[in-house]
Automatic annotation (TrEMBL):
<dbReference type="GO" id="GO:0016471">
    <property type="term" value="C:vacuolar proton-transporting V-type ATPase complex"/>
</dbReference>
<feature type="transmembrane region" description="Helical">
    <location>
        <begin position="136"/>
        <end position="154"/>
    </location>
</feature>
<feature type="transmembrane region" description="Helical">
    <location>
        <begin position="248"/>
        <end position="272"/>
    </location>
</feature>
<dbReference type="InterPro" id="IPR002490">
    <property type="entry name" value="V-ATPase_116kDa_su"/>
</dbReference>
<protein>
    <recommendedName>
        <fullName>V-type ATP synthase subunit I</fullName>
    </recommendedName>
</protein>
<feature type="transmembrane region" description="Helical">
    <location>
        <begin position="93"/>
        <end position="115"/>
    </location>
</feature>
<keyword id="KW-0472">Membrane</keyword>
<feature type="transmembrane region" description="Helical">
    <location>
        <begin position="160"/>
        <end position="178"/>
    </location>
</feature>
<dbReference type="GO" id="GO:0051117">
    <property type="term" value="F:ATPase binding"/>
</dbReference>
<keyword id="KW-0406">Ion transport</keyword>
<dbReference type="GO" id="GO:0007035">
    <property type="term" value="P:vacuolar acidification"/>
</dbReference>
<feature type="transmembrane region" description="Helical">
    <location>
        <begin position="6"/>
        <end position="31"/>
    </location>
</feature>
<dbReference type="GO" id="GO:0046961">
    <property type="term" value="F:proton-transporting ATPase activity, rotational mechanism"/>
</dbReference>
<keyword id="KW-0813">Transport</keyword>
<dbReference type="GO" id="GO:0033179">
    <property type="term" value="C:proton-transporting V-type ATPase, V0 domain"/>
</dbReference>
<keyword id="KW-1133">Transmembrane helix</keyword>
<keyword id="KW-0812">Transmembrane</keyword>
Length: 310
């Protein structure tokens, strides 16, 4: 339920072929060095796969240590430039609006997936009514809202708009009548139903949906940040290159130090923000607390010995 989404989000945030290759190499080294430590090995195995995702998405978005492929660094029509152009699908720096729409689209899909998991969980417990009221109705209402707002940005056939309008009206009636079903009076049921649609109470809501999908725009922002900082490092390195005899050495040194710094900083943000999207926006759609308190049977460690003083 989580791995593919996390790897995709990580790759979008970090998207660079060179950085992805560095991450794979570093992770493989740690896995090999600490192969007898299962926890460390498994943790860096995740980063190894994240490096693969980073390299693939970097190739699709044209990120190679920023723009190190540029003619002013490697010469006209160099091999890396030709490779970059042959693999690139979209340049987020040149077409940021399309990249933003893609990021928000991922957020919408991820949110609907979370609602579907809630339905699945309710069905496993035999709560068919909850699956319909807290799942199916939202999966009709929210897509309907999206459909009727599309004409604000682009032209759509009237039939599609009408279908979206009917979806919203029909599901809204169902939500108003069911979201407050635990209230005793009909007035309370209706009031809670309306309030729940807005998002103040209940399992979901319009405001929650909008705020959650907008949070996925951070994927675009972090991806652009990685590329822009890398490009800035390349520019600084190019500035020092003409300095007498030491110019080439300074150029290489700035590239190594600068990209190492960017690599380390962006790893942190590329890990933290996708994790936040999963634990907050995604888990919020289906995760429910309350369970038997964890009682460990014992403790085992190769490094720590616990002595019971009782």
């Amino acid at each position: 339920f989580l791995t593919l989404g996390f790897l995709l989000f990580f790759g979008i945030c970090f998207g660079d072929v060179v950085y992805g290759t560095m991450l794979m190499g570093f992770s493989y080294y740690i896995m090999y060095k600490y192969k007898n430590y299962e926890g460390i090995r498994n943790f860096f195995k995740l980063f190894f796969y994240a490096g693969i995702s980073t390299a693939i998405i970097g190739a699709m978005t044209g990120g190679w240590a920023g723009d190190i492929y540029d003619a002013k660094y490697l010469g006209e029509n160099n091999l890396l430039l030709r490779l970059r152009n042959s693999l690139m699908i979209i340049d987020p720096l040149a077409r940021p609006i399309i990249a933003l729409v893609f990021a928000i689209g991922l957020g919408i899909i991820n949110q609907f997936y979370g609602i579907s998991l809630r339905m699945y969980g309710e069905l496993r417990k035999g709560r068919v009514g909850n699956a319909i009221f807290d799942g199916v109705l939202w999966l009709i209402f929210l897509p309907g809202i999206i459909i009727i707002t599309i004409p604000i940005f682009a032209k759509v056939p009237g039939g599609i708009f009408n279908a979206g309008l009917y979806m919203v009206i029909g599901s809204a009636i169902g939500l108003v009548l069911t979201q407050g079903r635990n209230e005793k009076s009909w007035i309370g049921k209706i009031v809670i139903g309306f309030v729940s649609m807005y998002g103040i109470l209940g399992t979901y809501g319009c405001t929650s949906f909008v705020s959650d999908i907008l949070s996925y725009s951070r994927l675009l922002a972090l991806g652009l940040t990685t590329s822009i900082i890398a490009m800035s490092i390349n520019i600084i390195a190019d500035i020092v290159k003409p300095i007498n005899i030491i110019g080439i050495g300074a150029f290489i040194l700035v590239l190594i130090l600068g990209h190492t710094f960017n690599f380390l900083v962006c790893i942190i943000s590329s890990f933290v923000h996708p994790a936040r999207l999963i634990f907050l926006e995604f888990f919020g759609r289906f995760y429910q607390g309350a369970a038997i308190k964890f009682q460990p049977y014992g403790f085992s460690s190769k490094r720590i010995q616990v002595i019971n003083l009782d």
